[in-house]
Protein: Two component transcriptional regulator, LytTR family
Organism: Parapedobacter indicus
Amino acid sequence: MPSIRCILVDDELPALQYLQMLCSQLSEVEVVKSFNNPAKFLNELDRLDFDACVLDIRMPGGNGLQLAQRLKDKAVIFSTAYKEYASEAFDLDAVDYLRKPYQLDRLEKAFAKARDWLAVRRSTAHAFELNTSKGKVRVKSDEIAFIEVAANDRRDKEIAYRDGSWLLAKNITFDQLLLLLPKNRFCRINRKTIIAVDAITSYTQQWVSCSFSGSGMPLRFPLSAQYRADLKNRMSG
């Protein structure tokens, strides 16, 4: 599975198509979507699930430097044919800065930097504290496979970790948990289950299957009609 889900934004269609072709040669990179119009990217931003963005700086109808301020939790790789933007790009904590025309080896290095940046970010970000049966525990969201209503008390929730271990969160609702979990990475699939989107291996109209390192065999959960559209949107995004 690709380790970096990426968005490409460049108003020059030939440059965008060439960039897509180069990305297709990098096994760890999945291009989620490409945009040659920054306004369209902004309109869809909240519905897109991605880790990194290769972003042209100088575009009609949108300044890449300003757009990057909306991507605080993403690995931003700026691209431009104009070297005078370099200092401004790095002031925005950009992962890397590419000069056009794109070159495969240089793009590969940029994504390697993005991977390292994301690894550091994920090790510290998206963590939150919960009241549990073990007392106060700091939970890292990227370690969670799914969450279910506890059998003994509906006010409590069983958190299943990807390594196969469990944690009992005390007196918390799914709505409260979804506010704590990173947006677009978790999805409620029925009244009793929240699941990590990247743990899902397949789904039908009635069932969701998932797999992770500690599960042994694939697990299957019922998919309720009221959550079906949201799941399809997450999986297709």
In short: The mean pLDDT is 87. The chain is about 30% helix and 35% strand.
